[in-house]
Amino acid sequence: MEKIAIVGAAQTKYESRKADQTFYDMVFDVTTAALEDAGLTLADIDNIITVSNDFLDGRTISSMAVGEAAGAHDKNISTVEGDGTFGAFYGAMRVLGGFRSTLVVAHSKGSEGNPQFISNAMFDPIYHRPLGLDTTSAAALQANAYLTRYGITEEQCAQVAVKNHGNARHNPLAHQPLEISVEEVLRSPKVADPLKLLDCSPVSDGAAALIIGNEEIARKAKTKPAWVKGVAHCAEEYFLGDRDLANPKALRDAAKRAYQMAGIRDPRREIDVAEVYDAFSYMEPLWLEGLGLCDPGQGGQLTESGLTAMNGALPVNPSGGVLSAHALLVAGLARLIEASLQIRGEAGAHQIPGVKTALAHGTHGPCGQSHCIWILGES
Amino acid sequence: MSDWRDEVEALTLKGQIKMPYTWSVGETGSRFLVALRDEQKILANRCPLCGTVYVPPRKNCGTCFADIGTDDWLEVGPEGVVTAFTIIHQAHPLQPLATPFAYAIIQLDGADVGFVHILKDGWDRLKNGVRVRAKFGIERNGRILDIDGFEILT
Amino acid sequence: MARRVAIIGTGQTHHRSQRRDVNGREMIHEAVQRALADCELTMRDIDAVVIGNMDHFEAINSVDTWSVEGSGGVMKPIMKVTTGGTTGTSVAIAAYYHVASGMFDKVLAIGWEKNSESDTTGAIVTCSDPIWDRYSYSGAIPSLATEASAYMEKYGATQRDAARVALRERTHAQNNPYAHMHGRPLTLDEILDSPMLAYPIKLGDICPRTDGAAAVVFAAEDVAEKLAPRPAWIKATAVRHTYSWFGDVDQRTGLESLERAAREAYAAAGIKNPAEDFDVAELYLPYSYAGLKWIESLGFCGPGQGPQFIWDGHTDMGGKIPVNPSGGVMSTNCIGATALLRVAEAAIQVMGKGGARQVPDVKTALATGFGGCWWSDVVILGKEKPA
Q1: Is pLDDT of A6 > 90?
Q2: Are C230 and C352 in contact (CB under 8 A)?
Q3: Measured between alpha carbons, how far is residue A201 from residues A84, A174, A195, A287 in Å?
Q4: Which of A19, B53, C41, C325 is positioned for an S-S bond with B112, CB 3.0–4.6 A?
Q5: pLDDT digits (tens, 9 = 90+) for A33-80
Q6: What are phi and psi of A171, to 5 degrees?
C-alpha cells in the first residue's frame, strides 16, 4: 500500500443543541478549520466525501445540504451514509486510487429529529419495526446477552461510564464531562435493563472533518502526519436473532485484517491508545474483546484493573469517548480524529505520552452489526 | 464594534415528514404471516446447504447465499427458550404497549436462530433459559403482532 | 498509482411497476445472483460490497446493514453510498475506487429501489432545503419544466422535438427484455396527446417509477483478464455536484455540472470528438427535453442543435451515436439503480452481451448519472485497456 496519512482535522464542540447553526454552517466551520489545521488551502483538496443520513437530517438526498459548505464546488464528490469511519475509508481509497487528497466531513444534529423514530427505521419494517425496537432496546438485549454469558456485572459497566465521563473533563469539545461515581451510574434512571441513563451516550449535535493525503500532501501540510497503517471493515448478519450478540465476529474479522495490513502481531502490546465506539458502557469491554485487546469475557475487569485508564498500559477513550459526545455518524470520525491527534502529540490535556500506534473504531447498524477499524502510526 | 450575531433571534422551523409506505412482504414472508393469521402456526424454513432453520423464514440463506427453495418448510415453536431479554422502562410512541414490558430473543423449539418478540408480564420469573410460549391474538391480520406476545411457562 | 479496473459482470431484475412477490432484500438478491452468474463467480469470491438507494423511497434507514442477507454482505466489508438520482453512478465509482485503491480485487456494486412502496413525489420534495426551497420550488418536475421552457424559449425547440426523444427511448426499450416499458410501444402522437403535468412536460415526456435492482462486478486488472473474455475497462470517471439550491441553477445555459464532469472525463480518456469517439451512450435522461439539451452539454452537437441532431436519427439504433439502446431512464426508473443501469448497460455494450439491443462493435461507451440538485456524473468505458 502506498503511504497515506491524516494531515489535518477539526471538530465542533459537541452540544445537546446547536440552535444557532445549520448543517451547512457546521460543515463549513469544520472544513475551514481542518484546512487551517493542516496549513492547506482548498486548492490542495482534490475531492470531497460527505457523510450524512436522510433520516437524521429529515431530508431526502441529505448530502445536498453540505456539498458547497465542504468546498466541493467544481470538485469530485461522493457521500457515504453510515458512520464517519466508513466515509473516511472511502476517502482513503480515493487517495490510494489516484487523488492526492480527500476531505471527509460528517455532521448530524440529534436535536432536530426524534432519535427513537429514526432508529426504529433501522429495523425491518415487517418483522421488527412493529415491535417498537430502537437502537437502545436492541443494545439492551445485547448487554443482557453479554453480561449473562460471562458474568460481567452492571458495576463493571458503570466503571466504564465513570472513567470515560471523567476523561471527558480533559476534552474541551466533549458534550458531557462528568465527575460521577459508580453508585450514581447504578442509581440513574432505568432505561432498558440492564441499561441505566448513565450507561447510555447522550444525543449530541456536532460535525467533524479530516483530510487524508498522499505523501506529497503530507509533506506540504504543516502537521505531523498520522500515517494510515491499516484499515478494514466488516458486517455480520442483520436479524438480531441470527447473531451471537455476545461475540462480535465481524469486529474480529475487521480487526484481524487491519492488524495484518499494519503488520501488528500482538495488538495488546503494540497499540498505545484506542478510541472505540462506546455508545453504551457495555460496548467498550465488548469491543475490546472483539479487537483482541483482551480475551473473551475478560473485558469487564479492564476498567477496574486500571489498564484502560489514562495512565494505564492501554488507555481507552482518553477523549471521553462516545459516552461523552455522541453526534451520530460524526462519532466514529471523531474517534479517528482523536487517534490522529494522539499520534501528533496534540491531544492537549488528554494526550497520552509517547503514542506511536493508535487504534480507532467505528460501528454502524444495530448492536454493532458493522465495524470499521483504523490503525494509525507515527511513521 | 458589536457583532449582529450576538443580537439576532435564532429561529427554528417545525416540520414533519409523514409519508405512507406499503412494504412488499414477499412470497416467503407472506406464507409465514398468513400461517400466523389463519392457522396460528409459526413456520420456518431450512437452508439446503448449511441446514440452518430460519424463523422468520428466508428466501435465501445469507451465509450460504443460496436460494432456500420451496420444499423444506417446517413448523417451529410455539414454545421456546429465552436467550436474551430486556425490560423496557423508557416509553416512546412506537412501542406497541405501555411500559414496562420486555423484549426477548427466543430460541423457538426446532429453530436454529433467535426470534425477537414481546413479553408482557411475569418479570419476577424472567431470566435467560426460561421457557416461554407464544400467545396468539384474537384479532389477527397478517402481522408479526398476530403473536400477542410470549408467556413464561412454569 | 491507481490500478486498472474493469467491469466483468452485470445483473438486473426484470423491472416492473410493482414486485409484490419479493421484498427489497429479496429483489436485491435476484440482481446479485444474475451478476455473479454473468461472470461465473459465487459470493465467496467477492471481497467487498457497495450498495445504494434513497432512504425515503422505502423508509429503510441504513440499507447496507438491513440488506446483507440479499446483497451478500454477511461477513464482508459493505458500505452504503447515496447521492440521490446519481446514486447508481456514485455506487459504481465507489466500487471502482475500492478496486483501483488496491484494497479489494472483486467488488460488487448494487443499486436498487422499490418505488412502489412509497409516494415518490412525496419523498422527493423533501430533497429541497426545508427553509428555502421545500415549500416553493421542489420536487423533480417543476425544476425540469423550468429548464425545458427556458430551452424552448432560447432555441425555438418544440414539444414535438421532445416527443421525438421520448419515442426513441420507448422504441429502443422494445429491444430490452428487462425494461419496465418492454412490450409497451408508443407512437409520436400518443406521446404528444398524453396529459400535461407541468408545462411543457407531459406524461409521455417523463420517466416512470419502477421496482428493480442492478448489480455490477468490478475487478482488478489481473482478475478481469483471467475471468472475462472481454472486460469493460473503466477509462475515466468524473463527478460534479455543483449546486445546493435549486434557485442557483442558471437554466439559460447548458447543464454546467455535466459540461464540467464531461470535460474532466474526456480529458482523462482522450475523448476529443464525442459524437465520433463514442460508439454508444447510456445517458441518464429523466425526461425528454434532457435528450435535446444535455447532448449539447456533452458536446455531441453544438448549442441549440440538439433537436436537429435527434431528428437526423444520429442517436437512434444504427445512427452515428446510438443513445440508450436499453430504452433509458424513461423506460425504467428504479431510482437508486437507474444510474448504475446506465453503467451496466454501457458495460454490456462493450462486452458485446446486448442481444437485440447490441450496437455493433462498441469500443468506447459513455454512461452518465443525473440527480440531486442538477448534479452530473460521467463514466467512460472501453474495450481497450486504459494506458
Answers
A1: yes
A2: yes
A3: 17, 12, 11, 16
A4: B53
A5: 999 999 999 999 999 999 999 999 999 999 999 999 999 999 999 999
A6: -120, 105
Q: Is C75 touching A (CB cutoff 8 A)?
A: yes
> Is A340 inside any structural domain?
no
Q: Is C62 on the interface with A (CB under 8 A)?
A: yes
Instruction: Give residue B1's pLDDT.
Output: 66
Residue-wise pLDDT for A85-121, tens only, equals 999 999 999 999 999 999 999 999 999 999 999 999 9
Q: Taking CA atoms, what residue in C is nearest to A371?
A: C77
Burial-class residue C85 by CB neighbours within 10 Å (0-12, 13-18, 19+). buried
**B117/A131 CB distance under 8 A:** yes
Size of interface B-C (CB pairs under 8 A): 66
Where along chain C do its domains lie? Answer: 5-120+210-227, 129-203+232-381
| pTM across the whole model | 0.97
Chains that touch B (3 or more CB pairs under 8 A): A, C
Q: Find which of C19, C27, C29, C127 to mutate to test the B interface (most B CBs within 10 Å of its CB).
A: C29
Question: Cβ of B92 and A193 within 8 Å?
Answer: no
The CA-to-CA distance between both ends of chain A, in Å, stands at 14
Q: Identify the CATH number of the domain defined by range C129-203+232-381.
A: 3.40.47.10
Give yes or no for a contact between A191 and A161, defined as CB atoms under 8 angstroms apart. no
Is C69's Cβ below 8 Å from some Cβ in B?
Answer: yes
- C211-220/C106-114 β-pairing: antiparallel
CA angle at B77 for the pair B75 and B82, rounded to the nearest 5°: 150
B/e letters for C145-169, b = 16+ CB within 10 Å, e = fewer, are bebbbbbbeebebebebbbbbbbbb
In C, minimum Cα distance to B62 occurs at: C69
One fold for C5-120+210-227 and C129-203+232-381: yes
User: Do B59 and C26 make contact, defined as CB atoms within 8 angstroms?
Assistant: yes
Residue A300 lies in a domain: no
CA of B55 vs chain C CAs: smallest distance (Å)? 14
